[in-house]
Structures are given as structure tokens and as C-alpha cells.
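Entry 14. Ran structure prediction on the chain below.
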Amino acid sequence: MLKTRNQIKQEARRILEGNYLQIILVTLLLSVITGAFNTQLRVNVNTGTQFSDVHFSSGFFSFPLFTFALSFITLIFALAAIAAAVLIGIFVKNPLEYSCKSWLRHQTDHKEVSVFDIFHDPDYTRIVKTMFLRDLHIFIGFLCLIVPGVINIFKYYFVPQLLEDHPELSPEEILNLCEEMTNGRKEEIFIFNLSFILWDLLSGITAGLAGIAFVFPYKELSRQLLYLDWRENGLDPFYVPIENEF
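Output, C-alpha cells:
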């Protein structure tokens, strides 16, 4: 039987109290990489246009080719910066997101894992590809309209967790499995996230201090527990429970 939201949240608070400092540090890292790296790089590509509007009185600087060259160089630097941000997102941010979420979920079973071991993980390439495909599907959804983008966020909500639970599956199979797992339950995920709105307001009022100290760790642990609850109740058709030897 599925747990209620209150039961999940109570368990999240209990886990947070049991390992407060480490959870705070890991969720702070997770908040940075999912916030700072996910935010689109804003580069003032209008700089070149501004240069073209400058009128030099005489000499070489009045030559149109000079202003064109400045505009072209500015554009190249802007494109290089965007490309660098995208590559960092694919090869650093996404694996770290996966690793942080893996660490948080294992606070429920006290399994020893390290966040930064992800870069030595033999499954690193598969993780990179799967997380990239997840982001690509979400991005395409937002290109269509806001609503399809939001739906895709919830459709692929448990991709990091399923990646860890099913190393035998390909990236495409992971996405299909996540879509099957969340089919007909996206509204539940939306309501689950919406139930933290008062905590989010508190975080905003305190300029993010409450978010760092409690709200974000509380929400992330609750999300991991939501996945575990769904998995244990048969919503992951490929999951095989491991019998306790003791």
C-alpha cells in the first residue's frame, strides 16, 4: 500500500535529523549544480551591435570592416561560452546530479557511497547519455509550449533513480521505463511538489537561508522516499526485491 504524503515527509524529517550536516552539504551541492548550471547562460550578444553603432571620427577605426570584425569576435566568444556551459552541464553537472541523488536515497539504508566517485564509475558514459536524453526530451517539450515541457519534467522525474536500479537497461529503455512508471501519476507528482509551497515561501522570505538549512534537504529526501515507495509497491515492473539474509 502506498504511503501518504505525510508519512513520507515524516520519514524524510527523521532521516534528516539522523545525519543533518552531511545531508545539508550534499543537498547544497545539488542545489548549486541544478540551479547554477541549469540556468541558461546569459551573454550580451548585443555588444557587437553596440560597437556597430559607435562612430569614430577618423582613421582605421572608421572602416566598416573593423566594426564587423569586433561583432564577429564577440559572437564567437558568446558561442564558445554557451558551448562550454552545455558541455559542463552534460559531462559534469548531470553526473553530479545523479550522484547526489544516489547518495541521498542511500541515507535510508545507510549504504556507504561517495558523491565524487561518479567520475570513476564504469557506468559513467551510460549515465551521461541517459541524463542528456532526459534533458533533451524536456527541452523539446518546452520548445513546443510550457505545458508539454512541464509534463516532460514529471514524465522523466525518476530517471536518476531508475538508472541506478537498472544497470542492465539502455538509456532509451530507462526513459521508457520512467515514462511507464509515471504514466497516469504525473498529477500526483505535481501535487506532491506543490505540498512544499509554504516551505518554499519560507525559504524566499529568509533569502534562501531556510532553504539551505532545512527546506531543500527536506524536499530532496522526500522525493527519494516517494520513488522508493512507488518502487516497493510494484510501480517499477522490473524491480526485484532483495531478500534480507538476516
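Residues 5-231 form one domain. Will compare against last week's run tomorrow.
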